[in-house]
Design brief:
By secondary structure, this protein is mostly helical. It contains 16 helices and no strands.
């Protein structure tokens, strides 16, 4: 036998007419929703008593929440937009997927670079770091896909490393740079490394007129 503890007879009848059982009605009231009509609206958005707080954080009314839901905007984004003074409206897909970035705020070059990186599957924070550092999307892709920070990518690139070689280096580029400083020209470091030589041996070979490419061939023949 249902007791509907805590409900008046009138409240019980209203909740029952709206299609709620005692436990569900009690759960909605516990979540701060005391009107069964409001609970029906919240349920329309897919919200549960436990999850309705995601909508409520922004002070959304149930009717606003339903409208945002119909427009495809997730609860947390809807709450944030409501707090910013926005009324329910259609939000572009890119803005829904990456709410921290508004491509319209970027210059054409950075916007194109950001799109290139995002389409390549690069996480938004990594992609944004590269665009903020001024990288072109095509040039950044290989480095960003390997999650190498843009500052490290710049040092590796200056030494002639590809993104794959930089990822295989196994240590920070500044350590590599410190080891090779003054031994050979900066842009040749990667080539001498690929030849399998250390800084001192590379410097000696170069002084004897051997190029990095020749050294790589000679080492392979050994």
């Amino acid at each position: 036998m249902s007791t509907w503890t805590g409900f008046t007879q009138g409240e019980m009848r209203r909740w029952r007419r709206a299609g709620f059982g005692e436990e569900e009605a009690a759960a909605w009231r516990e979540a701060g929703v005391g009107d069964p009509d409001d609970a029906l609206l919240w349920r329309t958005t897919g919200a549960t008593p436990a999850g309705v707080v995601s909508w409520q954080r922004g002070g959304l009314t149930p009717r606003d929440a339903v409208r945002w839901h119909e427009l495809g905007v997730a609860p947390r984004q809807a709450a944030a937009r409501h707090l910013a003074g926005e009324r329910p409206h259609r939000v572009p897909l890119m803005a829904r997927l990456f709410p921290g970035i508004r491509l319209s705020d970027l210059e054409p070059g950075p916007a194109a670079a950001l799109r290139t990186l995002l389409r390549a599957g690069v996480p938004v924070d990594v992609a944004r770091a590269y665009t903020d550092a001024g990288w072109d999307g095509g040039a950044a892709s290989d480095w960003a896909e390997r999650r190498i920070p843009p500052a490290e990518a710049e040092v590796f690139s200056a030494m002639g490393f590809t993104a794959a070689e930089g990822a295989r280096a196994g240590r920070p580029p500044m350590e590599v740079l410190a080891d090779w400083w003054g031994a050979v020209p900066l842009e040749e470091v990667a080539a001498w490394c690929a030849a399998g030589l250390g800084p001192q041996e590379a410097a000696a070979q170069r002084a004897a007129g051997v190029t990095a490419e020749q050294a790589a061939v000679l080492r392979a023949l050994r």
